[in-house]
């Protein structure tokens, strides 16, 4: 009886993507074949874009201060899905890996969480912004695969994670080749100027809890640090008060505080500075707002996860920030 139930469930999961129309036919560059990819789970697509772009394809776990990668240029398709249910990250990844292998892809990199490099790997690779994609720093898996060789090759980077009862899947398909870098003529119509978007959730203090719960992360936008300093200025910070209230609801709630910088200076020094700033915020929450240190940790991403272009002062100011990333609500 149980065997029949499993077979019926397997048939349902096989037919469901076709019913939902979740097949991807990626445009191609050069001679790479189209990628027809299906998500064999009940879920919804949260992000889809294709553009001529560059992509740093991870080829090994984080080591010696960086994620080894292959620099590619060509047609880059980025997609993400959210999947309902209680599947583990392995249960999410295994059928997707099998599908890719059946399409002729050969794995180049396969790792999970600590074996990938944990926090350092997550912030060293290209991840679609929240809330479309969410990566739990303690529970994710990554797969890089290649199909073909030379000019006929194309590549896939697959990243899966989960938070609570939701699974997250990101697929990036890269078809390298000669690209047309001609800049289109500007549209002079009023209101057509391109404005760099900021996709990381920012929130008023009153919305910190709601944004953190819904998006999995939030920028603490009212913090004040002197230029080049990790000392948090003595001032009332409504964002910290709201975050403290959120954490003290339950001892099982945990966040990681992540510091970020602009691109001025070297990577190592910026990572160190960003981590010191995150640590300063953690200490303030512990000392001033009585949040148990066991509910928090502090990390630094340096300039590896910008929200805006570093070519303008406004963009650099946006990138200098500390954010809270939700690890657990239980």
Description:
By secondary structure, the protein is of the alpha+beta class. The chain folds into two domains: 18-176, no CATH class; 205-328, OmpA-like domain (60s Ribosomal Protein L30, Chain: A, 2-Layer Sandwich). It contains eight helices and twelve strands. It has helices spanning 2-20, 89-102, 113-116, 118-122, 208-215, 238-247, 267-289, 313-319, and strands spanning 23-25, 36-38, 43-58, 69-84, 106-112, 140-147, 154-163, 166-176, 217-219, 254-260, 296-300, 321-328. It has a six-stranded antiparallel β-sheet. It has a four-stranded mixed β-sheet with strand order 9-12-10-11. A two-stranded antiparallel sheet has the order 1-2. Strand 7 (154-163) and strand 8 form a beta hairpin. The longest helix is centred in the C-terminal third of the chain and has 23 residues, at 267-289. The chain starts with a helix and ends with a strand.
